[in-house]
User: Fold this.
Amino acid sequence: MTALWSQAELTAAFGAAPTAPLGAPVSGVSIDSRTLEAGDLFIAIKGAAHDGHDHVARAFESGAAAAVVSRERAGRLAAFGPLFAVDDTLGAMERLGVAARARSNARIVVVTGSVGKTTVKEMLRAMLSACGATHASAHSYNNHWGVPLTLARMAVSARYGVLEIGMNHAGEIAPLTRMARPHAALVTTIAPVHIEYLGSIEAIADAKAEIFLGVEPGGAAALNRDAPQFERLAKAAVAHGARVLEFGRGADCDARLIEVEAIDGGSRVTARVLGRELSFVLGAPGVHMVENALGALLAAEALGANLDACASALERFSPQQGRGARFSITTPDGPAIIIDESYNANPASMRAALKLLAAAKPGPKGRRIAVIGDMLELGPKAKAMHAELAADLSASRVDLLFGAGPLTRALYDAAPASMRAAWAERSNELTDEVARALRGGDIAMVKGSNGSRMGPLVAALRDRFAHGAGG
Assistant:
């Protein structure tokens, strides 16, 4: 078991000594007693729905080395094991994240944007891992607790660190990027996500531009030259001392896309990156994926990573569940493909997913099927934004549309009558309809915001066809 934190380091970070000596150095950090591993430090975070203090006993039963608890609860929990008693457990985790960053020599990159943050973070994980020990955010740990937790888990031996940073409101990114102190920041694109809270696309760009506040002197900002609000972002990056690296299709971009060829399950790419022509395979289909890979290459090079090794590593990258992962099902009359885009959605990512569906090639007698749920947090123009996607459905040669949710009703009604297959108030009411419709050769893309519950629909379809019941 490799030591992550010593008792002395933890005492210094928390400003509190443990109630009893630790039997061994801490090997990990956890805020979830269900997934905690032996040797982990358990930090009892109080959230909106759960209070970690209620699970301290379970954490020690699972082998926790120590726990961080609030001072007022320490007396009742002391019998379970060594405790660090603090005024605020979230604040203590933040201090541990700051301590991890202070002791590290790792080169750090942070990723934000309205679309594709987690995918780009995983691209960077794959690329940088080919060049040295790399630590990266788990899942989508990108908020006020996810970023300090990710930092707190970073070993001293890490050569590279990759962090994802998200937001719902202005002011949320600034403290997190200042905690991370990155050497490079990558912004994927700006889209009307969370516009319900922020009011305008310009305000969204300004909130994302907070990412540059933490960039270390001499650091870089990798920006999509073709994305909305590029000039606004570039101006903010320069104002905070970052040098701007551009990726896109323009002739003067630092990473310029020259050619993309769709291949089975991915893309063959030719690009000019920092004056060099590179040819590589990306293990994910879609031009939007390729563009993000170019941004990731720029960010990785800004950290000092080997460009050739990074480009080669992209062939081993594959989309995650809910973010473009594909799987085959067996219908009564042959295999079909489901593209799982169910993790989240907004107008920009929905259009990108529909282009991905358009590029897919159904089998003989197969069809392109779109199963779409509501896109949330779009404000008063939400219904209109949904209806506007009808043109994209037609342009993507969608044969059948299934819709779930009250907002998606506007899209369903705006779509050509020949395309409309079924609509339901909730996603679970669509499962039977979609299952009955699927046949051999079909390619079905499922997408919607998390709140529209399209992920469970994908899981239900997968389970149903795994058991040989199509309709």
In short: The longest helix spans residues 287-302. Residues 127 and 313 are 5 Å apart (CA to CA).
